[in-house]
Amino acid sequence: MIVKPAPGLKVRHPVTKQYLPAEGIEVPEGDIFWTRAENVGDVVIERETAVVAPTHEGEAQ
Q1: How much is the pLDDT for 47?
Q2: pTM above 0.85, yes or no
Q3: Domain encompassing residue 23
Q4: 1-21, pLDDT tens digit by residue?
Q5: Residue 59 lies inside a defined structural domain of this protein
Q6: Is 1 in a helix, a strand, or coil?
Q7: Are 47 and 41 in contact (CB under 8 A)?
Q8: How far apart are CA 52 and CA 3, in angstroms?
Q9: Is 37 inside any structural domain?
Q10: Which of 1, 26, 33, 43 is the most exposed place for a label (fewest CB within 10 A)?
Q11: Is 16 within the bounds of a domain?
Q12: What's the per-residue H, E or C state across 6-57?
């Protein structure tokens, strides 16, 4: 998942103590620190969704 600071905020990474870049960083899915930060409005989390190709039934392969 990608974590970005909420608009107008500067948020520090809990380990590196560096500010998150505006484009965000990738963190492990379900990370409790970032989930809590999202719940209080400090960050925005973009969760990647799997793209499934449509199937074409009846086509010969």
Answers
A1: 85
A2: no
A3: 2-46
A4: 999 999 999 999 999 999 999
A5: no
A6: coil
A7: no
A8: 24
A9: yes
A10: 26
A11: yes
A12: CCCCCCECCCCCCECCCCCEECCCCCHHHHHHHHCCCEEEECCCCCCCCCCC
